[in-house]
Every structure is written in C-alpha cells, then in structure tokens.
C-alpha cells in the first residue's frame, strides 16, 4: 500500500481557457483568517504514503509567501496557508503538479457519497491481477509437478502471454507513481516496488526465451495481486476511519430559499448565500448557514452542534447553527455567515486540522519514511553485491535484492500516527468534541494538572440571570453596553433585559477591555462603564455600598456606581469531572478574573482547595500562572472568554466550549459542543488511548522490519512472500488503530440538569 500516483494531466497540457477557469476557481476557494493570510484546501488523489507528505510539504515551503503546508494522508487533501500579499497564490497548485501529483479543487461536496475514481481503478487492477495470478498458478502446478522439455517450455510461454499484459495493466498505479516521482526529481515508495515487479517480469521473460531456467511469472502477477489487495483494503479502511467528515459534509445544504426585496422566494446555490440575506427554512429542512431568526417560532434539533437530541425552542432574535433541523414551522432567518464560515464548514476544517497535525511521533514517522527510498536502494544493491560475491549466481542475487525492495516498504510506519489520529478524532466527534490539531492528542495525554476558568466554563454560560433587585432603568443601561460583548455575564444581562421586556438601544461605540469591562458614551458625552468594581470606580463618584456583592457594576461618569449582581449554575458534570481529575492525581486549579470571594465559593462547591482557587487575575496574570504551573508539569487549560485566549494558547493543551468567543475557539486545541463538562475527561481518555495506539503501531512496524528485512537479505524470503508480508503489516497497523472505535463503543449518557451555584460575585464583563 505504498505510494502516490502521478499526474496524468499537467497544467501546461490544459487549454488556456481551462487554465484560467481553474485558476479562478482555486483563488475563489481561499478563506481569509483575519490575520493577513489565506487558507487553500485542494485534493491530491494520488497521495498514499508519508514520503508523499514530505515531498509536497517541502516543495510548498520553498515558495515565497507560503506560511505553512500540511498534507492529510487519510483524506488526500493539501492545506496551504499563504500570505495575502503573495503575488500569485496559484503557484501553490503549479508547484504540486510539478512534483507529479494531480490537483483538483476541494469543497464541501467532495464527500457527498460519490464513488472514488481511485478506488475504482484499484479494484479493476486487482481483478486483472487476480485473474492472471490464478491462471498462471494453475499452469505452474504442472511445472512444479515435474513437467520437462517442450511441455515445461510451453507452459512458461503461456504463463508469459498471460502475465505480461496483466502485469503491465495492473501495475499502473505503481508505475505512474514511480515515473511521476522520478520526473519530479525525487524518490517515493513505489519506485523500488515498480523496480521489483518489472525486474521479476523481465527476468522471467529472459529465462522463458533464452535461459531455459526457472521463471517467476506467477510471482510477478501474485506480487501485484497482494499489493493491490492491501491497497484496496487500506483505501476502504481509511474511508471508514474518516467517515465522520463524510457524514458532516453530507449534512451541508446544497442551496437555500432566498427572499428577495419584493418578498419573492427563490432557490440559490449555497455558494451565493451571503451574510445579511433573508432566507426561508421550511419544516424538515436543515438551516443552510449560521443564521438569526427574524420571523416565526419553531422547535429545532441542534444535536449536530450540541450533541443534545431534545428539541430546542427558537424565537425571534435567537441564533441557529448551520445543520440544525427545523422541526415544527416554516421560519425566516437572516444569514450571519456564508457557507464557508458556518458551523459545518468550521467543523470539517477542525476535523481536517486534527488529522494533519504534526505531533512528535508524526515527525519521527515522516523522517523515517523520507529516508526510506535511498536507504532501501542501497540495501538492495548491497544485498545483490553480497550474493554475487558469495555465490556468483546472479539469479539468486537478483531474487534476494527484489525481495528486499518489496519487504522494506515503510507503509506501516507511515500509517502509524495519522491513522490513530483520524480514528481518535472520529471517536471524539461522535461525542461532540472537535480537535484542531492532531498533536493535541499527544499533548493531552501528557498533562499533569488542570486549570479552569470559572465564569462560562465551570458555570453555565446561558443560565446566568441578573438579580430581580436590579431596577429596569439600571438593567436597560447595562444591556445597552453588554450587547457589544460575547462574555457570558454580558449575555446574561442582555437575556435578562429581553426576558423582562425592557427596551434598550445599543450604544454606537463600545470599547471592551479584556478582563475589565465595557465602556461607552452617553448622549451628553459622559462615559459610562459596566464591569469590575475597580474598572467602574475609575469614573464613578462612589459605590452604593462597599460591601455589596455583585458580579458587575454600572456607573456613568461622576455618578454613584450601581451593583448588577448575576447568579449562575454549575455546568453539568462539573463536580464529577473535578473529582475524577483529582482522583487521577491531577491537581485542579481555578484562575479567574472574578472576585476572590466568588471564586472561593465555587471552589468549595466543587471540592477544590481554596489555595488553588485564584481570583481577580488579569489576562497577563493568567498566563503567568499557567507558565508558573507548567514548570511543575504539563498544564491543561479550560476556558472560554476573550480574556482566556492568551492562557489557552500558552497552556500545554487546552479545551473550550463551542459557545466560547471566536478568539477562544481559535486558541484552543479541543472544542466541545455539548453543555456537560465531562467532555474534558472524554478528551483525556481518548487521547491517552490514541497515544497508546500510536506506540503500539510503532512497535508493530519496527517488529515487522526487524524480522522481515534480515530474512530477505539472507534469501529466506521470496518476492511472493515479501509482498504478502508487506501488505499484511500495513493492514495490521490500520486494524489496530480501528480498535479505538471498539474501545469507545458505548452509549453517550444524557447530560444531567445543571446545579445552582453560589451567586456570582465579581467577574470580567
């Protein structure tokens, strides 16, 4: 199951109009990350081994303007991130094609269930090789039974007539790959395999017509047969391992019902839907893009986003994710994102990123695979030379060299890491957890302590409410500021105002200071602030009561600050998660911008020692705390807000809920879509199992080479046996990784009702 097929149509062979259309299609597919870079994803169907990964990634990184390049071995996708200032991003495609790989655009429809042309070609080649191998074996029985003279020669010629066209046709996946690699100026795994097959066939033809000795037509055909069996099964297993991505992409809408300015409803392809468009979503259809409900009420199934199967009510003003199913009534929504930036597309990108992350073990496998081709050619030549010196028999020398070429293919080593990551990411996705990078599994398994933010992480973000003692006037002013922030306390203020039916108008310009609060301007020019006591105190005359407990404070410049207390509830399974972590000898800390009294109260409710509950920390202090703890062992950070983003990035590994801020989600390694905090333990359990599987795969690959290579060198393995052994080793590694599915094949327990926590004292607005 080796390597990559070459490009059958190069860029220069396309007509000018076709090249221009292809270039335009590629450039349109770029997604901006908001940091001056564009991300392009395209399909390279012939990528089949770690050597291909190294070749493409190194080739792309040589281009000016390319920030990063990653090749996904399982999905055969290439992701290139380039600077927006790059003169011609299409040079990325041209560079890959110069290396000998076919390239085609990639979008959500790629996994829509269509047949895989590569798989079909492999099956046809397998059928031809199997037919030839079976018939040649029947003829060989007579030769092995003692046929001599003209009878033996006739059977050899008939075998040759069957073998030559069959081997030339069935071996095309290997020959094309090898030729493309050589034409691109590099070696890949299929070069020695093609060499072995053709040498076996050529030597058999020579013996049949000139030498009169033993022929290996059966070996060349059977060799290809077993190689193709391995590649076909490997292809099927990879498809099964990444089936979660296929299920996600099939949920993506192909179009939407758009309402124009005259109120007419018409169909539009999903690529034409833009933020701000009015859409109609009938009963039984999925919401095509992330949207906000503007007319009607309905119940929806949002299990794709949250993992919860119970219907949820949707009322005007609520937001809904792409892929949610409309259950009870036709509604009108306003698109808040296009298809490329909606939930399903983001989940696919996260899954892709998870599969192509570069952990330490992955880098080790890449280095080993990259060194394979030159090393194996040297080893095969040394074997041939050694046998010639020892015996002088070129037949035996060539047979031993061919066996070495075949048996040393490092497919098992190349699959050891990525296949485990693919299956691990699939297992987590089934439990509502997304992985941003494959290396996160390794880092999660290494943690020695856990650090949690409080508000919105240990507590429910959507179950916060402003206390009833707050006046409508105060709440209206607070909501006018809070509407500009995604912080859980800000959203609680807005939600409370709506639930009371209080009308408010958002301020034109609101500034958010991470870890402190929000500031706007009144009509008379005075500043007004909502946030921490110290932040609001900078403009207020005095506080209403120095002892008044409050999560938030509100004050206009020169006026008395008013408390805005908010109450919250602990997330589902928060107590059990903390208890399990501590029982596993993993110390648990709370670091929060909230008032120390509030943080200590939450710590007591969860059984966390109060000296490990740190409050009133700024974002910088959170980073310093994480870095300080990291000196004692790898730190897992769990947080959700903008002020947590630096700590999420600084920690050894991090996890955040899906309702976290955009910055928080971009900084975390894992994202869980449900409401229960037991996602932390699930991610930890799966990560430990993935790391164990990677180690097992490495051990299996090394054991195979330790046993098989010496046998091939000393002549104890024929080319036929070598082909069977090489194919079997790769299948064993892939099958071992798929055992992860069995290990975690258990029902997902519904989340319990959240428990009421102590009133939230003071926190970041």
What is the structure about, briefly put?
With 765 residues, the chain is α+β, with helices and mostly antiparallel strands. It has 27 helices and 30 strands.
- Approximately what portion of the residues adopt beta-strand conformation? 5-15%
Q: Helix coverage percent of residues? A: 40-55%
Number of continuous helical runs = 27
Number of E strands: 30
Q: Could you name the CATH homologous superfamily of the domain at 434-460 and 569-673?
A: HAD superfamily/HAD-like
Q: What is the top-level CATH class of the domain at 434-460 and 569-673?
A: Alpha Beta
CATH architecture grouping of the domain at 434-460 and 569-673: 3-Layer(aba) Sandwich
The outline comes out as: elongated
Straight-line N-to-C gap = 55 Å
Class by alpha and beta content: alpha+beta
| Unreliable runs | 1-14, 108-113, 747-765
Mean pLDDT: 79
């Amino acid at each position: 199951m080796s390597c990559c097929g070459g490009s059958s149509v190069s860029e220069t062979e396309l007509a000018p109009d076709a090249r221009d259309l292809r270039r335009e299609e590629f450039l349109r597919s770029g997604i901006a990350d908001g940091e001056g870079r564009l991300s392009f994803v395209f399909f390279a169907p012939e990528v089949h081994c770690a050597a291909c990964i190294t070749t493409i990634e190194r080739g792309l990184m040589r281009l000016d303007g390319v920030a990063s390049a990653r090749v996904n071995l399982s999905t055969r996708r290439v992701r290139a991130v380039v600077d927006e200032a790059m003169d011609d991003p299409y040079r990325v495609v041209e560079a890959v094609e110069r290396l000998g790989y076919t390239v085609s655009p990639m979008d959500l429809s790629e996994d829509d269930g269509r047949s895989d042309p590569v798989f079909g070609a492999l099956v046809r080649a397998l059928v031809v090789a199997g037919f030839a191998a079976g018939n040649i074996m029947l003829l060989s029985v007579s030769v092995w039974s003692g046929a001599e003279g003209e009878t033996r020669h006739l059977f050899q010629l008939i075998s040759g007539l069957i073998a030559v066209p069959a081997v030339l046709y069935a071996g095309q996946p290997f020959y094309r790959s090898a030729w493309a690699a050589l034409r691109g100026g590099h070696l890949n795994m299929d070069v020695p395999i093609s060499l072995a097959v053709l040498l076996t066939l050529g030597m058999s033809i020579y013996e049949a017509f000139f030498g009169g000795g033993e022929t290996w037509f059966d070996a060349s055909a059977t060799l290809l047969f077993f190689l193709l069996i391995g590649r076909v099964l490997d292809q099927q297993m990879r498809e099964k391992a990444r089936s979660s991505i296929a299920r996600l992409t099939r949920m993506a809408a192909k179009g939407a019902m758009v309402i124009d300015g005259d109120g007419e409803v018409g169909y539009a392809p999903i690529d034409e839907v833009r933020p701000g468009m009015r859409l109609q979503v009938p009963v039984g259809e999925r919401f095509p893009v992330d949207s906000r409900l503007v007319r009607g009420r309905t119940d929806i199934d949002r299990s794709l986003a949250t993992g919860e199967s119970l219907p949820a009510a949707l009322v005007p003003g609520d937001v809904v994710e792409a892929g949610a199913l409309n259950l009870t009534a036709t509604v009108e929504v306003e698109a808040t994102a296009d298809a490329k930036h909606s939930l399903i597309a983001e989940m696919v990108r996260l899954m892709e990123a998870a599969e192509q992350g570069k952990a330490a073990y992955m880098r080790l496998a890449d280095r080993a695979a990259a060194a394979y081709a030159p090393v194996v050619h040297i080893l095969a030549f040394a074997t041939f030379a050694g046998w010639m010196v020892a015996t002088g028999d070129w037949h035996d020398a060539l047979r031993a060299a061919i066996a070495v070429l075949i048996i040393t293919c490092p497919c098992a080593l190349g699959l050891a890491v990525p296949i485990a990551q693919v299956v691990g990411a699939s297992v987590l996705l089934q439990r509502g957890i997304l992985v941003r990078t494959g290396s996160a599994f390794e880092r999660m398994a290494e943690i020695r302590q856990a650090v949690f933010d409080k508000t919105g992480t240990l507590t429910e973000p959507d179950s916060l409410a402003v206390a009833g003692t707050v006046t409508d006037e105060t709440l209206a002013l607070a909501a006018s500021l809070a509407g500009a922030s995604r912080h859980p306390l800000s959203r609680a203020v807005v939600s409370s105002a709506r639930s009371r039916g209080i009308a408010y108008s958002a301020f034109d310009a609101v500034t958010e200071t991470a870890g402190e609060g929000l500031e706007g301007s009144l009509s008379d020019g005075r500043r007004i602030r909502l946030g921490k006591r110290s932040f609001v105190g900078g403009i207020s005359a005095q506080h209403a009561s120095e002892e008044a407990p409050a999560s938030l404070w509100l004050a206009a410049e020169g006026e008395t600050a008013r408390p805005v207390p908010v109450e919250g509830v602990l997330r589902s399974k928060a107590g059990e998660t903390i208890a399990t972590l501590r029982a596993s000898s993993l110390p648990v800390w709370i670091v929060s911008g909230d008032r120390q009294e509030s943080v200590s109260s939450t710590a007591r409710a969860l059984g966390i020692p109060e000296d490990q509950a740190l409050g009133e920390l700024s974002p910088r202090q959170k980073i310093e705390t994480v870095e300080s703890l990291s000196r004692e062992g790898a730190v897992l950070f769990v947080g959700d807000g903008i002020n947590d983003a630096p700590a999420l990035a600084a920690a050894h590994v991090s996890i955040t809920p899906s309702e976290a801020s955009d910055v928080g989600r971009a900084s975390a390694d894992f994202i869980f879509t449900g409401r229960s905090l037991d996602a932390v333990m699930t991610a930890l359990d799966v990560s430990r199992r993935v790391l164990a599987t990677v180690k097992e795969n490495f051990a299996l690959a090394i054991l195979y080479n330790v046993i098989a290579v010496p046998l091939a060198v000393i002549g104890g393995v024929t080319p036929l046996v070598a082909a069977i052994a090489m194919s079997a080793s790769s299948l064993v590694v892939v099958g071992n990784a798929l055992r992860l599915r069995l290990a975690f094949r258990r029902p997902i327990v519904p989340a319990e009702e959240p428990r009421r926590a102590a009133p939230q004292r003071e926190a970041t607005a």
